[in-house]
Inverse folding.
């Protein structure tokens, strides 16, 4: 839990202030192994917001405060980007697990990195 809180604090600093709590565990849909997922506000995960392949993934209609889950293996990470096609990105986040919710409204793409 400490690792998640530390990683969340670092990512929140990079992206702006986020909320302090994640959806309740009993209401959250699990993110598949090997993927990065973006949770809906109700804790569910839409299939269009599950990413497996390295590289950029442009987002559509992902707004408001959301939780990103990094369930990749082998130390792979992700970045959130303020431009489509992986432009103007945050630092790479490599810790696995849930990150504190933050505002996805200005985020246009997510990049999966090795």
């Amino acid at each position: 839990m400490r690792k998640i809180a530390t990683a969340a604090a670092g990512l929140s600093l990079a992206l702006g202030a986020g909320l302090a709590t994640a959806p309740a565990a009993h209401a959250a849909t699990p993110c598949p192994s090997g993927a990065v997922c973006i949770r809906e506000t109700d804790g569910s995960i839409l299939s269009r917001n599950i990413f497996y392949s390295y590289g950029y993934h442009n987002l559509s209609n992902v707004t408001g405060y959301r939780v990103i889950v990094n369930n990749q293996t082998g130390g792979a990470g992700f970045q959130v980007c303020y431009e489509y096609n992986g432009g103007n990105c945050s630092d790479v986040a490599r810790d696995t697990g849930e990150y504190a919710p933050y505002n996805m409204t200005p985020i246009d793409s997510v990049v999966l990195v090795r």
About this structure: The chain has one domain: 2-113.
